[in-house]
Amino acid sequence: MAIYFIRHGQSEFNAAFQGEVDPFIFDAPLTSLGFDQAARARETIADLGVSRVITSPLTRAIQTAKTIFDGIAPIEVQHGHHELLKFSGDVGRAPDNLRVDFPDLSFDHLPTRWWHSHADPDIDVPVEPAESFESRIAGFVARLEEIQNEDVAIVGHGNAFQHIIGFMLNNCQIHRYR
C-alpha cells in the first residue's frame, strides 16, 4: 500500500506570476506545458499500481488528474488539500460550475463554497489565515491515515504538500508519501 503525492502541472497563473504581483487568473487552468508535464507523468505512473485517485477541486489539479489517470484509475474530487489561498489562482469555483467543465466527475459532496471565504463579500481574494490552512491540512492528513490496502495518488498543490512533507514539489513531480 502506497500513497503518492503529485503536484499539478504548470497553470496559467504559474506562467504569469511575477514575484508578488497577482495576475488575477482565478482558478487557473493548465498551460500547454502543464498538459505536457501531466502526459509525461502518465508514462511514469504505469508501474505504480495506483487504483484510486483523489484530486483537489481546483481546475489545474483536476486537469492534471484526468490527463494522468483517465482510463487507469477512478478519480475522486475532494477538498481539504487544495492550495493555501493567497492569490486569485487559488480561488475555487462552485460545484455547479466545475460540473459543466468536468461532467464525468462527481461534485455533489462539495459545499457550494469549499475554499476559504471572508466576511466581506467585496474581497475578491480572501487570504487564508495560516491557522486555518494548518488546521485544514491536519484534517486532510488524518483522513490519509484511514487509507488502507490500496495504492492511492493524491493530486494537489505545492503549498499543501510542502506543509506535509517539508519541501516544494515541482510541477507533476511524483513523491511517495507513504
TrEMBL record:
<dbReference type="Pfam" id="PF00300">
    <property type="entry name" value="His_Phos_1"/>
</dbReference>
<dbReference type="GO" id="GO:0005737">
    <property type="term" value="C:cytoplasm"/>
</dbReference>
<feature type="binding site">
    <location>
        <begin position="7"/>
        <end position="14"/>
    </location>
    <ligand>
        <name>substrate</name>
    </ligand>
</feature>
<dbReference type="GO" id="GO:0016791">
    <property type="term" value="F:phosphatase activity"/>
</dbReference>
<feature type="binding site">
    <location>
        <position position="60"/>
    </location>
    <ligand>
        <name>substrate</name>
    </ligand>
</feature>
<dbReference type="InterPro" id="IPR050275">
    <property type="entry name" value="PGM_Phosphatase"/>
</dbReference>
<protein>
    <submittedName>
        <fullName>Histidine phosphatase family protein</fullName>
    </submittedName>
</protein>
<dbReference type="InterPro" id="IPR029033">
    <property type="entry name" value="His_PPase_superfam"/>
</dbReference>
<dbReference type="InterPro" id="IPR013078">
    <property type="entry name" value="His_Pase_superF_clade-1"/>
</dbReference>
